[in-house]
UniProtKB/TrEMBL annotation:
It comes from Thiothrix eikelboomii. HAMAP family: CobT. Coiled coil: none annotated. It catalyses: 5,6-dimethylbenzimidazole + nicotinate beta-D-ribonucleotide = alpha-ribazole 5'-phosphate + nicotinate + H(+). GO terms for molecular function: nicotinate-nucleotide-dimethylbenzimidazole phosphoribosyltransferase activity. This is Nicotinate-nucleotide--dimethylbenzimidazole phosphoribosyltransferase. The gene is cobT. The active site is at 315 (proton acceptor).
Length: 349
């Protein structure tokens, strides 16, 4: 599929330079607003404008089921995936509350939960299958399925772009998906299952030991994938991770900045980065997840998290919680007075 490897848009160097110069003139000691300055400068370059903004935001949550759940790798039953999708749609989930308070547009994309829900407002049905296969026995997805799931993400980024979103947030829901994400980290970053495997939704020590074993076996089973990111995505799953991969790549191609959420969305970003390294320019990372392994992954990817609040929910919730920081960074950049405007004396030396 051609679009997967198409170039990302290029940050605008002129607006980057303008934004840097403006930050140096605002009434504060140089760099006193730290990372908030970097956020505003980066956004000005990405949005190619003098006044960056992340007021208009689309949150797309991709939901899907995982065959690997049969191996006892999650603390929660598989049915929770579909039940939480219903909860998102009814407004009762964390992301529902956050999206509403942020006035962000929220859509749920069913890319392959076991039993589809009926058509309703807020639900996009673009299924690549009914749950993935058990990756311990076979590839989680067929080649056709991975393309369908990538395409569902592509379509979500296109919707965000056509609705004039200024930022794209991807979320996910899928019981078992920390196993798939951990396989991708270990395979593509050469990290070990014993350091990368965590509790997910809340496994105890014995549960984590078993999950580590399962992940080790999945890695052995599909070792022939080598360093091929698309092959690993196909073998490990899941549909929602593939959809996130597609969404991130398409968003960057369209010139839409991306705010990553937690452990699973970062794994999708890893696959996307392997396919298109220039995606890096378009990524902001909201937080360090409490899921074991996320810190190592972030370090390996050279991403800078905005927050560390011990979150490990998913759904895009960490990104939603970090969004106000990005909004404040833009307001400060756009509305603070310069030294000249406010008649404040500049730095002596
Ligand atoms: O975002 C995170 O960092 C995160 C960390 C651990 C678990 N989750 C969520 O929990 C589910 C996967 O956990 P598990 O234990 O079933 O693999 C899935 O629905 C994720 O959204 C999310
Ligand atoms: C209740 C619940 C809510 C979630 N939201 C994202 N992943 C989740 C996993 C569980 C178990």
């Amino acid at each position: 599929m051609n679009w997967l490897v198409a170039s990302c848009a290029t940050p605008n160097q002129q607006f980057l330079a303008l934004a840097r110069a403006r930050q140096a003139q605002l009434t504060k000691p140089p760099q006193a607003l730290g990372t908030l300055e970097t956020i505003a400068i980066r956004l000005a370059g990405l949005q190619a404008c003098e006044q960056p903004s992340v007021e208009r935001v689309q949150i797309s949550i991709f939901a899907s089921d995982h065959g690997i759940v049969a191996e006892g790798v999650s603390a929660f039953p598989q049915a929770v995936t579909q039940q939480m999708v219903a909860n998102f749609l009814q407004g009762g989930a964390a992301i529902s509350v956050l999206a509403k308070s942020l006035q962000a547009s929220l859509e749920i994309v069913d890319v392959g939960i076991l039993e589809p829900l009926s058509e309703q407002a807020g639900l996009v049905i673009q299924r690549a299958g009914a749950g993935t296969a058990n990756s311990l026995q076979t590839a989680a997805m067929t080649c056709e399925q991975v393309q369908l799931a990538l395409q569902a993400g592509y379509a979500a980024a296109e919707r965000a772009y056509s609705h004039q979103a200024e930022l794209f947030i991807g979320g996910e829901m899928g019981i078992g998906n920390t196993t798939a994400a951990t396989v991708l980290y270990c395979a593509l970053l050469n990290l070990s299952p014993s350091t990368m495997t965590g509790a997910g939704t809340g496994l105890d020590a014995a549960g984590i030991a078993h999950k580590t074993q399962v992940i080790t076996q999945i890695l052995q089973r599909h070792a022939a994938c080598g360093q091929d990111a698309l092959a690993w995505l196909t073998c490990a799953g899941g549909f929602e991770i593939a959809a996130l991969t597609g969404a991130y790549l398409r968003a960057a191609q369209l010139g839409l900045p991306i705010l990553l959420d937690g452990f699973i969305t970062t794994a999708a970003a890893l696959v996307a980065l392997k396919l298109q390294p220039a995606l890096q320019d378009w990524l902001f990372l909201s937080h360090t997840s409490a899921e074991r392994g996320h810190q190592s992954a972030i370090t390996a990817l050279g991403l800078q998290p905005l927050l560390d609040l011990n979150l490990r929910l998913g759904e895009g919730s960490g990104a939603a919680i970090a969004l106000p920081i990005m909004r404040q960074a833009c307001l400060l950049h756009n509305q603070m007075a310069t030294f000249a405007e406010a008649a404040v004396a500049g730095k002596l030396r």
